[in-house]
Amino acid sequence: MSFSNIYYKDSDLYVEECSLAEIAKDMGTPLYVYSAQTIRANFRAYSQALQNQPHLVAYSVKAASNLSILNLIREEGGGADIVSGGELSRAQAAGISPQKIVFSGVGKTTQEMAQALKAGILMFNVESVPELTVLATVAGDLGLVAKVAFRVNPDIDPKTHPYIATGFKETKFGIPISEAFDLYQKAAADPRLSVIGLDCHIGSQLTSVEPMKATAERLNLLLDKLSAGGITLKYLDIGGGLGINYHGETPPSPVEWVATMASLLAKRKELTLVLEPGRSIVGPAGLLLTRVLYDKVTPYKRFFIVDGAMNDLIRPSLYDSYHEILPVLDRQRPLSLVSVVGPVCESGDFLAKDRQMPLAEPGELLATLGAGAYGFSMSSNYNSRPRPAEVLVDGKSFKTIRTRETLADLLKGETL
Ligand code: LLP
User: Does residue 181 form part of some domain?
Assistant: First the structure.
């Protein structure tokens, strides 16, 4: 697997021009470390691929929502795909223009709708008839007009982990594509709503363009029907979902991805194409740095018990996902079959299971790669563990972008 900007220099693991051993000395572990250059490069891969057509790259905030990461996206001209009032506040705090914010999700509350309407976001990606009814009421009460796209469910198998597949008709996501036309007509007649877009997101960690091709064909048919029915749209949001290489996967590049979509949508030049990538921008840019506490050998297994756990990075436990783990100090040593586990009291607490790895001694640092997306953003305080600090490396320097939580933080808001 190749993670650009993460490499060995002599025998030390570096992110850009910073040694991870040095960073850990300063910041402690467990620690999330991100490469700003990788984030910029991954974002630019999209904006360059889309340069010949009107577009908006609305970064999916849920992947990694630190303000400094959102600020990098803003500097690159990006917008935000949000799914909660909390993500809206973050995007705004990072200075992302509300005109570049799209709001997805099946369970928007009236408070969140009002917050987003007052902020003046670009559009709501509406996922059901009852949601549309509530949105129209909230907009009407505020004397505002809600700009709307319908998220349709194309009933496509995105060929990914079932927990992150959203394009099947049986999932909770989107409006069945067969029902969309009638809903567009209904919404177009409502003065509290302005129907401006069509949206679709079929799943995450997609490693082939085929499901998106099939989706684009279905979207095209719907767009034809809508324009024949007198409904012209301004935005076509095709969601996020492009996968990354965790363990030998060969996902298309953003250029291939966008080229496929663009060719399928060639006759839609009037539409601004919106993309909502998350993982493919930040995933390869981040790692979780942990320190080995114990090398525990039983008659049956060998465990490296590290100071990072499932509360810090839940992906292996939740999706059985694979993350490459590298020693920060690269030296000649024997391999052994080990599981890398954390201190949390569950057998499901692991970062790697039964893997051939170089032996590591207590006190050594291990880097879990591909942790930039859905790493810190899915972390929790389970087992009353303070969440890790986050660091952003940019060239020769690095800065703390989130301080480590303290024991006092853990008790905040609680009473005896
Ligand atoms: N747009 C919508 C409407 C989404 O639901 C998502 C992700 C995205 C965009 C961004 O997808 P991406 O480009 O990052 O694949 N926690 C899981 C992934 C959950 C994805 C949820 N939705 C994981 O760790 O694999």
Answer: yes
* Co-location of 102 and 227 in the same domain: yes
CATH number of the domain residue 271 falls in: 3.20.20.10
CA dist., res. 92 & res. 391, Å (int): 21
Place of tokens 């935000």: 80
Rg (alpha carbons) of the chain, rounded to whole number: 23
Counting from 1 in the atom list of ligand 1, the atom nearest the Cα of 318 is 24
- Judgement on whether residues 110 and 198 belong to the same structural domain of the protein: yes
Mutate to test the pocket of ligand 1, among 279, 321, 351 (most ligand atoms within 8 A of CB): 279
240: CA distance to ligand 1 center in Å?
7
pLDDT digits (tens, 9 = 90+) for 294-331: 999 999 999 999 999 999 999 999 999 999 999 999 99
Angle between helices 210-228 and 254-264 (to 10 degrees): 30
Length in residues, the chain: 416
Q: Is 204 in the pocket of ligand 1 (CB under 6 A)?
A: yes
- Report the nearest-CA residue for atom 8 of ligand 1: 240
197/314 same-domain check: no
DSSP state of 365: E
Does 263 lie in the same domain as 293?
Answer: no
Ligand 1 center from residue 63 Cα (angstroms): 7
Domain span holding position 355? 6-35+283-411
pTM beyond 0.90: yes
What is the tens place of the pLDDT at every residue in 1-31?
346 899 999 999 999 999 999 999 999 999 9
